[in-house]
Amino acid sequence: MNIQYFRWLFQAALGVALLAAVPMSAGANTSGPSVPERGDEQMTSREVVHRATTLASEGSFEQALELIERGLEQAPESQALLQLGGILKLRRRDFAGALESFEALLAAGPRGANRRKVRRIIRELRHVRSTAVEIQLDVPADVYLDDTVFGKACSGVAACRLPVLPDAYTVLIDKPGFEAVRASVQVRRNRTVVLERELDELPSAVVVAAKPADAFVVIRGESQPVSEMAAVAVEAGEGRATLEAGSYVVRAWRPGYFARDVEVQARRGEPVAVSVQLDRRVALSISPPDAEVLLDGRPVELEERAIRPRDHYRRLALDGALRLPPERTERTERTERTLEVRAPGYVARTVPLPPRSVDDAGGRLEIDLEAEIPPPPPVLDAPERPIVLLSSLSLATLGFGAAAAYGVHAQRLAEQARDGCDDAAEQLVCEDIDRDKAEAAENAATRSEQLFVGGTLLALGALQAWNEGEPAPPGGGMSLRRKLSITGNALVSVGAAAVGIGYGMRSQTRLEMAQPFCDENQQCQLPGYVLIRQANRDVATARLGWIVSGAAAVNAALLWWRTPSDGEASSLELVPELSRDRVGVTLSGRFR
Question: Where does the chain cross the membrane (predicted)?
């Protein structure tokens, strides 16, 4: 005989014993609650047993056990209440509680056959202390054993341990919004069976109501499309889908309307209702791009703005989209509305708002304004060649004159500084030399060289202007004036380079002469100091010579490169064409 059959057998036996031990009063009807309705604290043990038995027969085990507990508070050693409590706990699979009840019954002192039966039951129930079903869940839930009618074995917990007798059981796990779990377990004596389960949330029904009704609806999860619904096939623009638990983005779109995204959360099987109303989209292309747009006299801003060239890059236009909310869209369908485009310097233009058919076809309304300003004044011509030539020569002459003046001044200061020295051999070691005047003489000489270089560069520019615009000789080739200019530039370049080389070599020589007068720490005596200063000044002069040489060489190359040929003009006339919507350049002249 297995233990399950034996359990039901001794439950029946205890029921008989209970009925024999607690006789009913004469005329009592056990099929209904014939006991007078009095408070629990005023009921006798016999009345509590009768009422608890009635509740248990109706399946209200938890209420019956609560009633018994309150009865035991009044009569803690009532054998009838302890017996009935143990039997009901066995029926609802609370084996540990039944063991406690029967142990308390045994302590209450039953006699005879009832005492032997109680001991036998306790021996069979003692295995619940070492035999159990352990349930581990990912979320708190309610746990039932064998059937939900027996009540919750564990309520709202993620971990649950159920002491049981060795037998086969059915574990029921239930949580609102999750799929119910039903698992069968076989429990052996003195063993614990661990049951681990992860509950899955119930899918949610999503209903999308889109306006306009023929909009398309796409529901996307993290990265992949989950469901695509064409609402045109559903009555009243409703799209339906069933989604697993998670976060989704519902996108509604249609040509001629702005797309709209709505975030939804599907959880625990709860239905999700989404209402999406799209704004009408009117595509515009407006030139000039800085024009102001007015809808029925009110300024509006365009979205999706982008500037692009049109008409073969002759015109710039602003491409954008005008958003019309639903209330404006309904008003547009009832009355004709207008768009006005205006910009400073242009003739304003007013056009009717295009119908929805244009938006549905993906068309774009182009609005171009015409300029009302006169053409810009012509660009001033460059100064004529004689003016540039005379200006350059004048500035060059001033530069040479100033250079000569500073040179004479430097020579006088140098002579005055050496008045206290006997002869030229003592100049390097003469202690009576006026150092202030010597330094002033060096500064004046430096300015003289700089002014000379500036005058030379201006003279080179005058040569360039002298030959600019000169026509080629009838027989072709190069004119005498251009040849003389190129030759002069070449000679200046060679001469300046020679000056640079000479002063550079003299600077190196003076540095070598200064070495005997200087120690390892570069501390020099007076002769060495003087030689080093002279060497530095020679380096500066050599640098200026190289600058003049390079400028003359570049000027000669330009004169040769710009030499006209075959009697054609070598210059181009560039006239810019400027307006608010056009930018261009007109080229004129004869060129190859």
Answer: 486-505, 544-561
pLDDT higher than 80, residue 35:
no
The residues, ordered by sequence, that sit 6+ positions from 113 with a Cβ below 8 Å of its Cβ are 17
Q: For residues 124 and 414, what is the distance between their CA atoms, to the nearest angstrom?
A: 133
Q: How would DSSP label each residue in 216-273? A: EEEEE-SSSEEEEEEGGGSGGGEEEEEE-SEEEEEEEE-TTB--EEEEEEE-TT--EE
* DSSP symbols for 97-128: HHHHHHHHHHHT---THHHHHHHHHHHHHGGG
- Positive or negative CA dihedral for 392, 393, 394, 396? positive
Q: How confident is the model at residue 455 (pLDDT cuts 50, 70, 90)?
A: low
C-alpha–C-alpha distance, residues 264 and 261, integer Å: 10
CA–CA distance, 219 with 208 (Å, rounded to integer): 10
Phi and psi at residue 431, to the nearest 5°: -85, -15
DSSP 515: G
- SS3 label, residue 376: coil
Contact assessment for residue 420 and residue 433, using Cβ atoms and an 8 Å cutoff: yes
Burial (0-12, 13-18, 19+ Cβ within 10 Å), 352: exposed
Query: How many Cα atoms occupy the beta-carbon half-sphere of 463 within 13 Å?
Result: 27
| DSSP calls for 478-509 | --HHHHHHHHHHHHHHHHHHHHHHHHHHHHHH
Model's pTM, two decimal places?
Answer: 0.43
Q: Which two tokens stand for residue 340?
A: 């006005």
How far is Cα 336 from Cα 344, in angstroms, rounded to an integer? 27
Of 516, 510, 518, 512, which is closest to residue 539 (Cα–Cα)?
A: 510
Residue 391 tokens, joined: 């200006």
Q: Which tokens hold the place of 486?
A: 């190129």
**Conformation bin of residue 348: beta by default, left when phi > 0, alpha when psi is -120 to 50:** beta
Q: What is the pLDDT of residues 306-316, one digit of tens each?
A: 888 877 667 78
DSSP assigned state of 518 = B
Mean of per-residue pLDDT scores for the chain? 71
Edge to edge, what strands does the sheet with 216-220 contain?
225-230, 216-220, 246-253, 260-266
Cβ neighbour number for residue 137 with a 10 Å cutoff: 21
C-alpha triplet 276, 278, 283: angle, nearest 5°: 160
DSSP 166-228: SEEEEEEEE-TTB--EEEEEEE-TT-EEEEEE-PPBPPEEEEEEEESTT-EEEEE-SSSEEEE
The position carrying tokens 């604290």 is 41
* CA–CA distance, 427 with 203 (Å, rounded to integer): 108
Per-residue pLDDT tens for 339-355? 889 988 888 888 888 77
Please name which of 237, 245, 226 lies closest in space to residue 175, comparing C-alpha atoms.
245
Contact 511, 542 (CB under 8 A): no
**Which two tokens mark 159?**
């971990």
